[in-house]
UniProtKB/TrEMBL annotation:
Pfam families on file: YceI
Protein name: Lipid/polyisoprenoid-binding YceI-like domain-containing protein
InterPro entries: Lipid/polyisoprenoid-bd_YceI, TTHA0802/YceI-like_sf
Coiled-coil intervals: none
SUPFAM superfamilies the record matches: YceI-like
Parts of the chain that traverse the membrane: none
Organism of this sequence: Glutamicibacter uratoxydans
Family, per entry: Belongs to the UPF0312 family.
């Protein structure tokens, strides 16, 4: 890995193609299984510079769009027990550094949930850049991290009869993102 890696993507401001992207999460439930969910409303901007280190990404996720395929659970997640979507409608991420190469990127940034901002590190990889059948230049990424929900003030839980708690503190976040480079008009 070089100190300054040339960006493998075309320089410019890329916009997220939400219809080809997903923001998902999973958390251990009752100590025996995982509950998976996603957010269906989100946007992001990827700014590619001449080097990877000078590039950046910003994202906004609408909390009310949480979907775990269970309306009652989704309602509970939107409540003050968890995300408090009414008071904190948006989760945000803003990168502070990007390093590595296309196969092994580390994106460090500020994640804000419930008004609490913490630095997180995402392991990421570039899927590649290609021109699609309609002439649009696209780039794809996969990124993941694990966070402590308690660090963001999300502490609700219930004790289990056999010991332990209903909802794990650790939450795995996985992002599949497709970006499009707007054409010059």
């Amino acid at each position: 890995m070089t100190a300054t890696a040339t960006s493998p993507l075309t320089a410019g401001v890329w916009t997220l193609d939400a219809s080809h992207s997903e923001v998902g999460f999973s958390v251990r439930h009752a100590g025996i299984s995982k509950v998976r969910g996603s957010f269906t409303e989100f946007d992001a901007t990827l700014t590619i510079a001449e080097t990877i280190e000078a590039s950046s990404v910003e994202a906004n996720i609408q909390i009310a769009s949480v979907n775990t395929k269970d309306a009652n659970r989704d309602g509970h997640l939107k409540s003050a027990d968890f995300f408090d979507a009414e008071q904190f409608p948006t989760m945000t991420f803003k990168s502070t550094s990007i390093k590595g190469d296309a196969d092994d990127l580390v994106v460090v940034g500020d994640l804000t949930i419930r008004g609490v901002t913490k630095e997180v590190e995402l392991a990421a990889e570039l899927g590649g850049q290609a021109v699609d059948a309609f002439g649009a230049t696209r780039a794809g990424f996969f990124a993941s991290t694990t966070i402590s929900r308690k660090e963001f003030g999300i502490t609700w839980n219930a004790a289990l009869e056999a010991g332990g708690v209903l909802v794990s503190d650790k939450v795995k976040i996985e992002i599949d993102a497709s970006f499009v480079l707007p054409t010059a008009e």
